[in-house]
Amino acid sequence: MEKAGKKNKRLSWLLAIAALIGINVLASWVHFRVDLTEEKRYSLTPSTRTLLQNLDDDLSIQVFLKGDFPAEFRKLSNTTEDFLQVLKETNADAIQYRFISPLDEAGGGRTWADSLTSAGVAPINLSVQVQQGQESKYIFPFALVTYKGNTTLVNLFESSKKNVTRADLNAAEAAMEYNFVRAVNQLQNPAKPLVAYATGNGEPTGPETYSLVQLLQSQYEFGIVDMTKMPVIPDTIKALLIVKPTEPFTDAQKLTLDQYVMRGGKIIWAIDNLHAEEDSLRFKEQLIAYERALNLQDLLFRYGVRINPDLLMDLQCDFLPFAVGGSPDNPQYEFLHWNYYPLFESRGNHPINKNLGLVAGRFVNSIDTVDVAGLTKTFLLQSSANSRTISTPALISTNENRNAPEDEKFKQRAIPAAVLVEGEFTSLYKARVGRAQMDSLARFGGFREGSAQNKMVVIADGDVLLNDVSPQSGPLPMGKNLFTEGTQFEYEFANRQFLTNILEYLLSPGHLIETRNKEVILRLLDGPRVEAEKGKWQFINIGLPILLVIAAGWVYQQLRRRQYTAAK
């Protein structure tokens, strides 16, 4: 009987070992993962899977997140590796990736950091606490993606802030699939859409457009359209930017723009409906804001938008230096909030403004939308919960900022300043176009009364897409305030990213937009509850395991004692 028991026990052990071996062999052949997160953060969209499975050449990815990094970027590195492993599992034969230290040799006696810097890639400079004090860490949160001999750069962390937060990392994680898919799409389709800048109605063409033109030239084919010379905007131009015109549009120009929209052209309107320039404040300390007669009201109204001749003021705003004391020869300046420079914080979940930082405006108008059949509107920029509008003409004086603003006047919230319009547009000139115009348009495909599905964006501020110019260093990046440069208030706002997102939404294929909608939810702990239950959870996580080990030891000792006593 005893022998049979021992035999059964050995058989059980052999079966258990065989089962473990079988499980390991099966695991080497079959691999799968289950994404149990609510937002499916570890899953790819169906369109991304299709894109990767249909690759007809090798896709190589080099990531520069290897080295001695602060904890935040170690987490970003780990998250990136997890994501790339998911990509590789989609098409293991075609997709390869590796992590490289920026200090590794890149060839020719240069490091990867040298090569990236010389190519214009700016690292993030972080101040890290060490035993000796503060130490600068230069981090390159970038990846190089190569396909069919062509290479493009992917920015894995687009925030320019030196203090990295968990929310910033979440935003980077949420945008990771979109950034890589966009890179693959660009490499598969190297032909860039043509984007044009409209001139002829007093639009800026000087150094204040440097950042805008640089962005357009780096991502698209770029051209200029003179509205005084072109009766028809060519269909080869996929998007047209109209930025801060100062002279009225003629009916002929409006017909040209209207028919461009009817044929599927995308327009970004960045319109200052008021004449208000801060240059006047430098010399007179006051200015009068008055309406610009641009003759666009009826055209935009037909498209469901009205830019109001008012001024938006917001307690959430940028800084300007104001003289608060001293003498006329030696004034004493202090940086104060300037309510006419609102900062728009993204609250929407639209692909254009999702995970977007603050966007800086200057002397911004408000926007109303009009109910037009077949058109839907989505607000992209809105004021904070402490804002107001003032009617015009209005006297604006620097004296306003020498006293604290009257907060009770800033009770309006979410005043629209930019809107996306989508749908089937109807021509302003339907049943209004003359015979001569019909004959002229016949050479270009004829007059069209309506459009197929189309999109446009209307921004009630032209300065959103322009840059300041420093007398010392020249054009600044879009979204940087000349007056705060080199001070503690210096900050690069998300104006450039805002424009990038708009263009990508207007021009990119639908599957890219699907990936941009991905969200990684930051689930914060309840602070008061954490404080109230801290002792309980400390006991559960630290004290209870110790007690369980002690109890298990005592039980084991008692069982051993009984066994020894019974054996005697």
Provide a brief overview of the structure:
The protein is α+β, with helices and mostly antiparallel strands. The protein folds into 2 domains: 46-188, Glutaredoxin; 194-516, no CATH class.
Describe the structure.
By secondary structure, the protein is an alpha+beta fold. The protein has 2 domains: 46-188, Glutaredoxin (3-Layer(aba) Sandwich), CATH 3.40.30; 194-516, no CATH class. The protein is 33% helix and 27% strand. The protein has 14 helices and 27 strands. It has a 7-stranded mixed sheet with strand order 10-9-11-12-25-24-21. The chain has a 4-stranded mixed sheet with strand order 2-1-7-8, with helices on one face. A hairpin with a 4-residue loop joins strand 17 and strand 18 (331-344). Helix 3 packs parallel to helix 5 (166-188). The radius of gyration is 31 Å and the shape is globular. The two termini are 22 Å apart.
